[in-house]
Structure formats: structure tokens, C-alpha cells
Amino acid sequence: MSRSRSSLLCSSVAWCGISLATSIVPCLAVTAAPGRGSSSLASPSSPSCPSCPPSPIQLEADYGALALDIADSWMAATPADSMRWNWEEAVLMLGMQAVHQATGSPEVLNYLQAWIDFHIDRGIRVNRNDAVVPATSALYLYDQLGDPIYLEPVDECATYLADRAPRLSDGAIAHTLATPSQAWVDSLFMFGTFYTLEGAYAGRLESYDALAEQYRLFASHLVSSEYDLYWHMYSETLDQTVPSTPTFWGRGNGWALASLAILLTDLPIDHPERPALEAMFVRHAEAILTWQDPTGLWWTVINRPGDTYLETSASALFTFALLRGAHLGVLDEGAVRAAELGLQGILSRIEYDDAGNPVVTGISDATNPGPYWVYAHVPVVEDAPFGVGAVMMALEEGMR
């Protein structure tokens, strides 16, 4: 009984003439993404793109079945009421939403509901952007079930962003109450997906305006004019970015690109900021593709290939965003080819334990801003919830 268009999965199976259906066509023709000197990824018509030529790429694997297998394994191993109200678990639940939208699995919906119900019963207090993104699952449940109780955490998060969240002097939302002069790229996903789904599922259209403005402000502080990539953090007190030398964190750029892809899915076609946001999305996607590894993955420090390690969660976020951009008609076939390569890279990171359960490997652990060596030494873990969620999002997008 969904009342609004999906944001986490495309509402059209073949927008822009791009077929992503399961196929036995081999993937040998997929090549690495073009560099910055190649032709633009911008689609010739956007967002409906009626004149786009069909893509020659058809995806080979049943990515949706794998995403459901990952979801089932996680639910069997992890009680919903053992998971915190925090960003790591919230990204996992965004992946669960994508699986439920694709499959209608009642088990997945019940798991989402058990998690949100547990935290509503305990009481929710928000004091940072990382505690806003969990309310995306409350919005999803409100859309699916129509119970106004799920607007309670939504209202708490909306009040935090409107009234309590610290802001830089120009209005950019600071990352936490403890860091009132710092804008972190992570926040574009943590409050960004909330703003988009608040607009889509709760009908609060002013949320689109708020997020469009935040993207403009964050880009002015965090996007490198030389690389078109996001720095991790900007300190207004120091009036400088962190890192201060060209070191671009993979997952941070994934947060920014994926959240913008979700916004463009539901942002009204006639919204005055849509052209600027689409142009921002295309520039960022082109910059990301410059650094894709032949494996289909990206390095945890994007612009230092070979110096650190190939990282799964960033690669999944990029792959999701590229596929979504192609579905929307904002990106062209080059994005589809790069995303197909990205999906193959993601598959290479999924292993199986002795019981036959899928395990997502190669995930960089939680990361704070710092110089290059901070990112290079973040440990690699498996089955971190945010990495698992990002992988499910990418796999389900690959089936649209």
C-alpha cells in the first residue's frame, strides 16, 4: 500500500532505454571507465531522456537474489533489537528497504519494523547528523503501513535539523553539537537521505529546498576545484579543509554522490535547483570514473591508487549512484559500463562462510578526518553494517 514513488529503487525498469535485465550475455566487453579527457557522461536529454540510444550492456548475474540472500543471512544472525540508532545500522536498513521494495519480503519489512519499534519504545534523542539517517526507515514504514507513530522519530529529527543543529556562518549544517564549526561530507548522506525521503514519503516538499541549499553550501566548502572531488571536512575556525593536501576519501565521496542520486530521483522536474544539481552530479560522477580501478573497485583514497587498498563500501555507493544516474537519464552509457564493472568488483568481495552464508569483505572501518596516513591505516573489516547496506543497494539497483 505504498503511497509514493520509491527513492531507493528506480520506479522505472528501463528509463533512458537502458536495459539492466538479467542476461546470459558475458561481461567481457565491459571496459574501465573513461578518464577526465573523454566525452561527457551527461545524457543528451534529462531526466526522461526519450532519445537515449539503448545500452549494449545487459547484466549477467541475478543480483537481486544475492541481495536477498545477504539480507536473510543478516536477519538470521542479528536480532533487530540489538542494533543501535546510529548511521552504521541505518545504512544497513536502507539496503533492507531496497530489498523489500524489490521483493516484497514480509520478513524484511518485519525486521525493519522491529528495529524502529524498539527504538520508538526506548525513546529517541538526536544530537548529531549520524542519528538523523535512522529515521529514513521510519519514513519508509510510514509509507508502507500508514501508521502515524512512525512520524514521531521523523519529527524529532526534523526538529533537530531545524532548531538544534549547529550551523556554520553561511548556514551549512555542522556535523555534531561537539563540532559546531565543522562541515563533514558524511553529513550529506546522513541528513540528505532523510530530507529526500521526508519530502517523498511525508509530503514535506520544503525538505527538497533545504537539501538543495545544503548541497550548494557543502560544495562551496568541500569540492576541490582541481579534482571535482569532495574533501572530508571543512573547518570554519581554521578556514581550511581536512586533509589539507590532495587526499580524497572514497566512502566520503560515495556518501555525497549516492545521496544526490537519491535526491534527483524524487526532486520535482521543475524544481528551480534541479539543473544545477544535475550538473553537480555529472561533474562528480565524471571525476569518480577517472579513478576507477580495472577491477571495477575504487581505492579508499581515491586519488592514490596502489598506495592503500581497494574498498568495498565506497565502490558500492559509487556503483549505486552511477546506475541510478543512468536510470534517471542524467548519465549516459559510459556510466552503465562503469557500473557493470563495479558490480563485478563487488561480487569479488562477497565470500561464503562454512555454513554457506554470504560475507561482505574489504570494508574500511569507521573513518575520521585527518592526513593521508589516517585513511591508509583504517582497518579493513567484514560485514560492517554500512558496507552490507551499500552492497545491497547497489545489487538491487543493478536489477532495475
Which fold name corresponds to the CATH topology?
A: Glycosyltransferase
The CATH class, by name, is Mainly Alpha
Strand arrangement, major sheet: 1-2-3
Q: What is the strand tally?
A: 9
How many separate structural domains?
Answer: 1
Estimated share of beta-strand residues: 5-15%
Q: Could you tell me the mean pLDDT?
A: 88
DSSP summary: helix tally: 14
Order of helices and strands: HHHHHEHHHEEHHEEHHEEEHEH
CATH-scheme architecture:
Alpha/alpha barrel
Indicate the overall shape.
globular
Instruction: Round the Cα radius of gyration to an integer and report it.
Output: 19 Å
In words, what does this structure look like?
By secondary structure, the protein is mainly alpha-helical. The chain has a single domain (15-397), classed as Glycosyltransferase. It is built from 14 helices and nine strands. It has helices spanning 63-77, 87-103, 106-122, 135-145, 151-164, 187-190, 192-202, 206-222, 250-266, 274-289, 312-327, 333-347, 372-376, 385-397; strands at 182-184, 233-235, 240-242, 298-299, 310-311, 350-352, 358-360, 363-364, 380-381. The strands form four sheets. It has a three-stranded antiparallel β-sheet with strand order 1-2-3, covered by helices on one side. β6 (350-352) and β7 (358-360) form a beta hairpin. α2 (87-103) packs parallel to α4, α2 runs parallel beside α14 (385-397) and α10 packs across α11. Mean pLDDT is 88; it is low at 1-7, 9-40 and 44-58.
